[in-house]
Amino acid sequence: MTTADMTASRTSWKRRERRTTAGLLSAPMLWLALFFVAPVLYVAAYSIGAIKLFPTDAGVISFEDWNHFLRGGSVYMGLFWKSIRISLTVSVVVVVLAYPIGYFLALCVRKMKYVLLLVVIVPFLTSFLLRVLAWKVILGDRGVVNSLLFSLHVRSPDDPVSWLLYSQFAVMLVLAYVWVPFVALPIFVSLDNLDRSLLEASSDLGAGRWRTFWRVTLPLSAPGVVAAFVFVFIPTIGEFVTPLLVGGPSGYLFGNAIQDLFTRGTDWQSGSVLAMFLLIVVAGLMALFGRFVQVRSVATD
Amino acid sequence: MEIATSRPGRLSLTIFFWLLVAFLYVPIAFLALFSFNDGDPSFPLSGFTTHWYGDVFANRVLMSSLGRSASVATASSLIGVTLGVLMSFALLRRRFFGKPAVSALVFSPLVIPYLVFGISLLLLFALVDKLLADWFGVYIGLGLHAIVIGHVVVTLPYTILTILPLLERLSISLEEAAKDLGANPQETFRRVTLPLLTPALVSAFLIAFTLSFDEYAIASFLAGSEQTWPVYLFAQLRVPSLLPQLIAVSSVVFIASMLLILSAEIGRRIAERRYGREFSAQGLASSR
Amino acid sequence: MTDMDHFLARRLNRRGFMRMAGVTTVGAAVLAACKKAENVGGTATATGAGAHPPIAEEPGKLQVLDWSGYGNGDYYPDKERLGLWQQYADETGDTPQFTLFANDDAAFTKAATGSVKFDVVHPCGYKYKDWVDLGAVQPWDTSLIPNFPALNPKLEQSGIVDGKQYFIPLDWGFIAPIVNLDHVDVKEETFGILFDDRYEGKISWVDTSNMMYIGGLFLGVTDPFNMTDEELTEVRDFLISKKHLVKFLWNQSYDFWLSFKKEEVWIGYAWPDTVGYADAEGMNYLYMEPKEGRVSWVCGMGLAADTSNYRHSHAYVDSWASTKAAEFLLAWYYYGHTNTKADLSVVSPGVVAALGLDDPTVLDPPRAIPESFIPRRDLYQQYWSEVLAS
Predict the structure, then answer these.
(1) Residues of A in contact with B176 (CB under 8 A)
(2) Going from the N-terminus, what domains does chain C have, and what CATH number goes with each?
(3) Which residues of C touch B179 (CB under 8 A)?
(4) Domain that holds residue B104
(5) pTM
(6) What pLDDT digit, counting tens, does each position of C244-273 carry?
(7) Helix (H) or strand (E) holding B61
(8) ipTM of the predicted structure?
């Protein structure tokens, strides 16, 4: 090939490359535009009344619902804070439980590291509903825990421990159970990537193990901890399935309110306001903590 | 690792680890235990039986919901993997305007609450159904197709996350080498790239399949008259009459999904290690 | 020389893709327009049997929107079929497809949003007007229902809205508290037992906005089904204050029964099926006749306005209106049925007497208050959501 030929083919290659880029992107982007972006925009439009469920209603754009919700007139705001409180508790507990797991696997185990990690993670990848079912069986008034207590004569069958199920406790327990396996991963990854020589240096400089942990290991693993926290906090704010199954009347959360508004009544505008609010909160949290969550580095190892 | 822990420290960490693992698996073990219990799921046990497993197969509603979930999961995984391959190529091998934004868009289904997403699709379909009915007299409604559409969106990030790393490791010089040796693009794709990508494709398919099979929130809004397995399971969880049957199925589904995930993971690692070794740029250079 | 990109360009060229998409869209539009023309031609006014095509020309696969346990086999897999729609299956050779709803509000929402297509729907009396106003249902042609004359005329009148027989009332029953007398000390028969502080954690309410009018009934408002804003606020606050007494809110009656049977709860908002089960189980129960009066409900079948299974739907209702269906409902759910020729011996005389199954006047005041149309249903729902959210 002459130089001229090569240059010519290179330019035409670049032109074709641009076309094929469009070709590669078109299908996925079209799918996402139609079935992800458009629906979300649609919910936003619903929330301000730009679209109504029954066309007979006046299509007046009003921020009335948003106003009412945000200015404290609505009971749903209180429900939102209740959900935040529960999510926060669950997230903290989960991270505290998962950190030693990550630490153990990254820094104390040599050969079986990844196998043991898989052992921890695999339950997360199995059916969520079934795991909740398992806890319903364990926590009920006639469930495993209580029947054990009856047979040991600690409690009588007339007086079971009833706050185990259909309570906020049950919701938090089940959520923690579900999320601990998943959260161990980012913590493990950040600890695994720790530069061992730093630990050695710290020890050489005379720091004891605890001091090394507090001043070196923990700060360096902070990104992983934050990522882990975000991974569990964000999905649990909108949680509605677990409360529905084990929450009882006091375990009713923000997600449940959203679901009820869409399936029980025809007031979809209020529902849309709450749904958009949730989305904005989640997006805001992601924007805030996004730098700690490098999706690719966490998922691969 | 003496620097990281002391001997008692290591011991307590080990104990904690295994306690937590026990905590994770004990409820699952209870389910398996009760699936053989001849009575209600509570202590004391009533006697060994396998008839719940037999009842499961006789339960046509249950079986058909499992079948529907399998079809939905297969369809959405196939589409998800296809779109994932396209997107991975675009992200990795192409430069284009707005790449960070596109990247963010593609991965954002990871953080959207499925509740909100399911509702948004419900609204979209309500609109589309209304338009179709008014303009064309055609009615589609909700149903399995709607669930497939939703699942493709949420599994897309996972498929990309599975395919991208392997694609990254496949040196582009491989494709150029094939080209130099006279292979046309179809051949290159078919005989070089695709076979090398296969482990990631299979892995991505399995992960997407598992995700879709078990997905409840989105399916609950879009199911229509045909229940998928999670929707059926959820409805039954509130009516404990069939509990033992569900427990029996759950054990089977658990083990199946665990095996699927394990094999996906192991396969992916083997592939990465093998191809990473043989086809890294250095390897190629040294083999010449 | 061609290269990888040229290959991709040929396969995935954007213009080509758009062209293809355009062709398919136009093609689909053309096909759909043809279909609409057919539909427009085929949809006749819903009067006179002559306007409807013979049954053989209907598509079949009847879509039934109904409660769980009313034919889809959730509770009594074979009995539901044999009792309720075997006659239909034998006559038409068709198998109905069921879409289920948890309560009337959920059913109405599904239909209102167009997210479910149905031929026949089974709401309860207080919702009839909502359905008619929505335009989702059309009147029945009772001449196509051979069993119609056997149905209680007075109850059938309750299915007339705006002068037309939009609904065929079929099943009826009560809402009243049921209590476990082994554990509960009943001083007075009243709905107030659902709000009794002595039994914290042993009470179950229903998970619908019906609790609003129950609360109103107990607090003695003038019209529980049409409360003023002040009354609604009062009821809401009252329910919020009593919510801590409730162990769980039930969505399915059978769910409540299982809990009642295990004595996890001793008091509950209950339908007659719970009575039958408790009776069969030999429990020491009381299905109250509260001083406020029981609330009575009558539910019926509605016909979709845009159904293409006109004759199939009538055959389905006829199957439901038969004595066989009546006896199934009586024997297994202890619900009343509007068919006056049903054989009541399928139910134990004790239950018949307790529920007044042989006497539909038991549905009237003062013994019972019929569940009526609630004009401000959305508002009730909103206040109930606030009770749940607090």
Answers:
(1) none
(2) 58-172+297-358 (3.40.190.10), 173-296+369-389 (3.40.190.10)
(3) 3-4
(4) 62-287
(5) 0.80
(6) 999 989 888 888 888 898 888 999 999 988
(7) helix B60-93
(8) 0.79
